[in-house]
Design brief:
The complex is a heterodimer of chains A (about 290) and B (about 375).
Chain A: H1 11-38, E1 42-44, E2 47-49, H2 55-62, H3 64-98, H4 103-115, H5 118-129, H6 134-141, H7 155-166, H8 168-180, H9 183-191, H10 196-207, H11 209-224, H12 228-233, H13 241-251, H14 255-290
Antiparallel strand pairs in A: 1-2
Chain B: H1 17-32, E1 44-50, H2 57-67, E2 69-75, H3 79-87, E3 96-100, H4 101-105, H5 107-110, E4 113-114, H6 122-127, E5 140-141, E6 144-145, E7 148-155, E8 158-160, E9 184-187, H7 194-200, H8 211-227, E10 228-232, H9 235-244, E11 249-251, H10 259-263, E12 269-271, E13 283-293, H11 300-309, H12 312-319, H13 339-344, H14 350-355, E14 357-359, H15 366-379
Parallel strand pairs in B: 1-2, 1-3, 9-10, 9-11, 13-14
Antiparallel strand pairs in B: 3-13, 4-13, 5-6, 7-13, 8-11, 8-12
The chains are: A mainly alpha (about 290), B alpha/beta (about 375).
Protein name (chain B): Extracellular solute-binding protein
Pfam families (chain B): SBP_bac_8
Keywords (chain B): Signal
Amino acid sequence: MKIERKSWTDPVLIGSVTPLAAVMLFFFVIPLVMTTVLTFQTTQYYRLAWTWDLTIWTEIFSKPHYWTIMLRTVSMALICVVLSVLIAYPCAYALATRLKTYSTQIQILIIFAFLTDAVLKTFGWILVLDNNGVLNWLLAKVGFPPETLNLLYTPTATMIGMLYNLAVYPMFTIYLSLMRIDRDLILASYDAGASRLRTFFEVTLPLSKPGLYSGAVLVFVLSLGAFLEPRVLGGGTSPMASELIRQSFETRVNWPLGAALTIVLIVIGALTLAAFGFFTLRRKATKGGAA
Amino acid sequence: MTKRIAGNGPVMGELNRRTMLKGMGGLGIAAAAGGFPQGAFASESLNYMCWEGYNAPSILEPFQKRNDATVSIDLITDSAGGFAKLAAGAYREFDLVSSDSPWIQRMGPAGFCRFIDDNDFAKQYSDFYPQFRAPFEPLQFDGKATGLPTRWGWVGPTVNTKFDKLETWSSYAPVFDAAYKDKICLLDWGDWPIMPLVLYAGINPYEELDQAALDEVRTVLRAAFKNTRAIVGDLAVAQKGLLDGSFRALIGGGTYCTSSLRLKGHDYIQSIVPDPKDGLKQGIIWMEATGLIDNGKDSKVAADFLKYIVSPAVAKELAITDATCNLVPNQKAEALFSDAEKSALQMDYMWTAWDNSQFHTVAPNIDDMLAIWQEELAAR
């Protein structure tokens, strides 16, 4: 296929790009610039003072607790990505290969669960994870002592909530990737004598990587902003970045600090994704070179 | 202060898809019926920023009908945030605000308070308990009144007496006792959970603190976090834990999270004020107030609304809401409460609590203390 190069002055190109560029400018770039500008101000008696100094940035870089929370957030997000993919892949695989007859019905059920309000779902988990909740009740029924699990208000409960709310994203992206795989390639692998396992690792998995990566990125980005789960299920004792930002804006009424922490979180997220992209590309290039 | 109440429904002045569609349907029917009747449009509208409870239709509708006015509500979930919004310029849009008293008082120095003349409100003051009559110091700025008190209560340990004796909580010591590990719930309501713990450390948080005092604040918060099972912002979650015994005490909530439970029959739930420690009163009195905003309109209807909101009948409505039940400063309203309501509000204990409490104001070092809270929580 021949790719036709177009000049940036091409009116057709400008016309087609302008709407998206305008949307991005008004709803992303300008708010981001305003947020950045806010970080160079201070608050005095709960009112914004236009001071143009580095007070807030000095505070952020001199207080380790901000970075402790950021590190905790990134760690939780990465764990959530790994677990989400581990949960989502088999589900998506089963949906695409073994449960084709019921795939529409199952997808509808998943979409219903997905569209249910996250606040409702997260609070619902309290009834399951509480010391005298459904989970411990079930365990007691099968012979475990009362209140065997003490999950509520722990980081584990936070992770369960995050997985419940987010694992559906990679489930769908992986499912879509799997559905696009040419069945003939898999049959060719079998014809060439490959086992099911080898076919999966050498044909199916590599070809489903686009869905896996996009799902992982979605989970990572959304996990960085996880707010409800650490607050409601985690009991607020292991706060993540969103809670820190909320406290800064709402409780401390320190908008410059909240804005600066927001920028820090965005930069950390962008850098992590860039590093992921860089290593993925380098690995691909190395493999390509070796071939 | 941030108070979280579960189950907030749509409020007046709040638009969502459903109310929008309902409204459009209503407009269609009205148009089909031959236009709008005379007087369907109110002659004056008030913009009112307030806490949940002040927006009850049973409170707003009679006033709107009587004054041919529309009251549009902007609900706040934290007083500091509400104040910040007003200070950022929104004061031009609002006529009244009901918030925690320190933030009403702060409207004075902030320059957007429409001060009230105590003489114009002499009738209202005369209905109040003597403790709240003019000149009411907590709401004064520069010798002028910034608003009128509307609801109040106290902050102390909230205890389930099925599990603990009240005497156990005559001090905050159990918060730091290993026997209560993972049994303590701190309410995530801004500075509310910090102040009692600081008082227990022997420091008055409402005075200017030096570095040594702030170090002590850090020590006491660190110790409290060791026993804390959860820091909960949602009232319903905190109440559930207290009822089933997974939380043995709620710290930083007080009567705000007690009375509604007591009214529903859980009269074994009580909020008390610990005994003074080394001469320092350990309880905290919180108060909500309503003030007029200087938006240039000098609205008479707004002033009338202020008189209306503190009147005995409305005060009673304001005291008993679906989500919370709170005391009101109006003495005449007391006769309107049933015995069950009086018991729910712990009226027999209110002046004991008053006498053993500090009055909640904006602490000079509040941001330092909130920063320490964040730091110690991160390090936990």
